[in-house]
Amino acid sequence: MKRHVFVAAIAALSFACYASGDAVAGATVSGTIKLELPGGKKPGRKKIQMAADPVCAGKHAGGATLSEVVLVDDDGGLHNVFVYVKSGLEGKTFDAPSEPAVLDQKGCIYKPRVMGVRAGQPITVLNSDGTLHNIHPKPQNSAEINKAMPKFMKKTTISFANSEVMVPVKCDVHPWMQSYIGVMEHPFFAVTGEGGKFEIKGLPAGTYTIEAWHESKRLGTMTQEVTVADGESRSLDFTFKIKPRKK
Ligand SMILES: [Cu+2]
C-alpha cells in the first residue's frame, strides 16, 4: 500500500515538473480578431422564431433571441472565430485528453456555438431543456452521428475519429439550432469570445500557418504565418471584411 502511494506521488511530481517545464518552454500566439465595420455599423441580427416549440419559446419569455451567426462587439471584436494551427506541426503527436468537452443544448441554442475538440475526445452532449432535441453532426472525415435526445435524456456522448475543420452540427427538431466543432490532431486552437480575443499557448518553437475560420461564407477564412522561438510571445491580429452577397 505504502509503495503505491509513493509511486503515485512520484508520478504526480514528475507530471507537475513536465507540465511546468512545458509551460516555460512553450510559445504563445495571441491576438484580436475584428470585423471591419464600415461607418461603424454592425450587421443586423435576425430574431429567431421559436414558436414551433413552445418549450423553447418559453425559455425566452423575457424577449426575443437574436441570431448568433455574426456576433460582433461595438468596436468590431468578432466572436466565435475558430483560430488554429493549420500547418507546421506535421510529424508531431499530442496525446488527446480523456476528459470530455461539453456541448449543451440550452434554451434550444447550442452552447457554445463554436468549439474545438481533439480527434477521439469524448464530447458530453447535454439536454438542459426538457424537450426533444436530435443532435446531428455531419462530418466529412468521420462517421455521421444522428441521436435523438428525448426530454428525459439529460446527456449522451459523441466523438469524432478524425480531424476536420469544421464539423457542422444541426438539430433536426429545431432548424435554427446550429453549431460547429473543430476536430483537431493537436491542442493548439482557440475560439474568440469577448473582444474577439484569442490565445494559443504552449506551442513548440517553429513556423506555423495560423488560420482564422468564421462560419459565415461572407467572412470565410484568413491565414497568416508566424514564427516563434521557445518561450516567445507573438501577437497576431486578423481583420475580416464582409464580402458582397453572391448574386
Ligand atoms: Cu433541438
Would you give an account of this structure?
By secondary structure, this protein is mainly β. The chain has two domains: 27-92 and 203-247, no CATH class; 95-185, Immunoglobulin-like. It has two helices and 19 strands. It has helices at 2-25, 54-58; strands at 27-35, 47-48, 65-66, 82-87, 101-106, 109-111, 114-118, 123-127, 133-137, 147-149, 155-158, 164-171, 178-184, 189-191, 197-203, 206-213, 221-228, 233-235, 238-240. The longest helix has 24 residues, at 2-25. It binds copper (II) ion.
Number of beta-strand segments: 19
In spatial order, strands of the major sheet run 7-13-12-9-10
- Output the radius of gyration: 20 Å
Q: What is the residue-averaged pLDDT?
A: 90
The level of helicity is 10-25%
Number of helical elements: 2
- Following the backbone from N to C, one meets helices and strands in this order, namely HEEHEEEEEEEEEEEEEEEEE
Largest sheet: 5 strands, mixed
Instruction: Sum up the overall morphology in one term.
Output: globular
The ligands bound in this entry are: copper (II) ion
How is the topology of this model organized?
Layout: H1 2-25, E1 27-35, E2 47-48, H2 54-58, E3 65-66, E4 82-87, E5 101-106, E6 109-111, E7 114-118, E8 123-127, E9 133-137, E10 147-149, E11 155-158, E12 164-171, E13 178-184, E14 189-191, E15 197-203, E16 206-213, E17 221-228, E18 233-235, E19 238-240
Parallel strand pairs: 1-18, 1-19, 5-8, 7-13
Antiparallel strand pairs: 1-15, 2-3, 4-14, 4-16, 5-6, 8-11, 9-10, 9-12, 12-13, 16-17
